[in-house]
Design brief:
This protein is an alpha/beta fold and 229 residues long. It contains six helices and seven strands, in the order E-H-E-H-E-H-E-H-E-H-E-H-E. The chain binds NADP nicotinamide-adenine-dinucleotide phosphate.
Length: 229
C-alpha cells in the first residue's frame, strides 16, 4: 500500500538513497533539506515527490515543512536522517562545533517532532531516525558527535514512552557508511563500509513491517569491523 513519507536530510548520501528507495516502492515523499537541487532532479522522474527547503537550525523553515505535511492530511512515515559531524581531538573542537552538532542532531530532531506530533499521531506514524552506532558507545576523536547522538537516542526513547501506541519510533544505528559525511569525501563501498543502500533497505524493512509492530532499534555494521557493543 502506498504511504506518505517525509524524509528530513534528503539532499545527498543516505537520505537521498532513502528518498529514491521509497519512491521506487511507490510511496509519496516530501523530501526536506537545505539544498534541494538533487531532489529537484528526481522530480522529473517522480510526480509523487515534493521538496521543501529546510534548515533545522531555522524555526521559520520548520514551519514551511509543517505546512506541506498538513496539506497531505497526515503522514505514515517520518525519516529523520539529517545530521552533521566533525571529528578530531578535544583541542581541535570549538563551541561553534558543539552548537552545530547539537543544534542539528539533537535539537533539530526535538523541533521536528514537536512541530509534527499532531500529524504523526493521526495515523500512528513510524518515526525512523538514522542515529549512529555511537549513540550507545563512546569513541575517541568524536566526543561531541557521539554525545549529540546519545542525546538523540534519549529523545527517541523518552518520546516513545510519552507517545506509547500513538507514534512508533525506530532508531537505526549504522557503523561507517560510504558517503561524504564529516569531511570524508567519496568513500567507496568496501568491506569496511556499509553502502547508503544498506541503510535504505533497513528503512524499507521498517516501513514494510506490520502496523501492529514497533521495531525499537536496528544496529548494523560492516562485517569486517571489530565487534563492539
Ligand atoms: N556516513 C556514515 O558513516 C554514517 C554512519 C552512521 C550514521 N550516520 C548518520 O547518517 C545520517 C546521514 O549522513 P550521511 O552519511 O548521508 O551524510 P551527508 O551526506 O553529509 O548527509 C547529511 C544530510 O543531512 C542534511 N542536513 C545537515 N544539516 C542540516 C540542516 N541544518 N537542516 C536540514 N538538513 C540538514 C544534509 O542536507 P543539507 O546539507 O542539504 O541541508 C544531508 O542531506 C546523519 O545523521 C549521520 O550522522 C552516518
Amino acid at each position: 500500500m502506498s504511504k506518505t513519507a517525509v524524509v528530513v536530510g534528503a539532499s545527498q548520501g543516505i537520505g537521498l538513497e532513502i528518498v529514491q528507495s521509497l519512491l521506487d516502492e511507490g510511496h509519496r515523499v516530501i523530501a526536506a533539506s537545505r539544498n534541494i537541487q538533487n531532489i529537484e532532479s528526481l522530480k522529473t522522474k517522480f510526480s509523487s515527490l515534493q521538496s521543501v527547503e529546510l534548515d533545522l537550525t531555522d524555526a521559520k523553515s520548520i514551519g514551511a515543512l509543517t505546512n506541506a505535511v498538513e496539506h497531505m492530511g497526515g503522514i505514515d512515515v517520518l525519516v529523520f536522517n539529517a545530521g552533521v559531524g566533525k571529528f578530531g581531538s578535544l583541542s581541535e573542537m570549538t563551541m561553534g562545533d558543539w552548537d552545530r552538532m547539537f543544534d542539528t542532531n539533537a535539537k533539530g530532531f526535538f523541533l521536528i517532532i514537536s512541530a509534527l506530533q499532531n500529524e504523526l499521531k493521526k495515523k500512528c506514524a513510524q518515526v525512523i531516525t538514522i542515529t549512529s552506532d555511537v549513540s550507545s558507545r563512546a569513541i575517541a576523536r568524536g566526543a561531541i558527535y557521539a554525545a549529540s547522538k546519545h542525546a538523540q537516542k534519549a529523545l527517541i526513547r523518552s518520546f516513545q514512552m510519552e507517545f506509547k501506541n500513538q507514534i512508533r519510533f525506530t532508531e537505526i544505528r549504522p557503523g561507517n557508511v560510504a558517503t561524504d559525511f564529516g569531511g570524508v569525501i567519496g568513500a567507496e563501498p568496501s568491506g569496511d563500509y556499509l553502502s547508503p543502500k544498506d541503510v535504505a533497505n533497513a528503512v524499507l524493512h521498517v516501513v514494510n513491517s506490520s502496523s501492529k509492530m514497533r521495531i525499537d532499534e536496528i544496529q548494523m555494521r560492516p562485517i569486517d569491523r571489530e565487534v563492539v557493543f
